[in-house]
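Translate sequence into structure tokens.
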Amino acid sequence: ASALSTAPIVSTNCCPTCGQALALTDLALDDGRGAVTRQGVTVALTPSEFRMLRILFARAPAVVTKDSIYRAMFDTSLDEQPEPKIIDVYVCKMRKKLAPVSVLIETAWGRGYSLHVLDMKVADLVRFDGERRDPSKRWNEWDDAHLQALVASGVTKLTLLGAIMKRPYANIQRALDRMNLSRAPLPSTAA
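Result follows.
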């Protein structure tokens, strides 16, 4: 029998006022199958990806360092271990798989990763971007339309827009300014 968790995933973070645990989302995790379900959409993950998802959820939306993730996933006392770069590989694969349930893994450059659960109405915009043309191409009308749709859906944090659109922050900020959309200030470089 699989262990299906239908209760919301709960963060270890607590409300500073009342001390109660803060619920993150309406995701259901099936430990037995390594699957994530949200609003009828189910995504299967490999055992390692599922373990990493659990690690990120435990600290969401805080940044979790790559080193912390690596130590939690692998027995570092063994002689044979995977290269630390494997964490980046898992993140890349998980981003594509988790798009249909609007779960986004954000890169905090030089620090690690953080997990964000977006509104389900953003799922199509995130999934559509995963199928988009080559991101090395110049900014065009398609990018403008995509950015407008994301901002209209409530995604205004510049780092999340960058992760979804796979575009440099400066390009996104220039487009936001040009279109007079809600200002999303550039992220701080301070750790």
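Note: Confidence is low (pLDDT under 50) at residues 1-23, 184-191.
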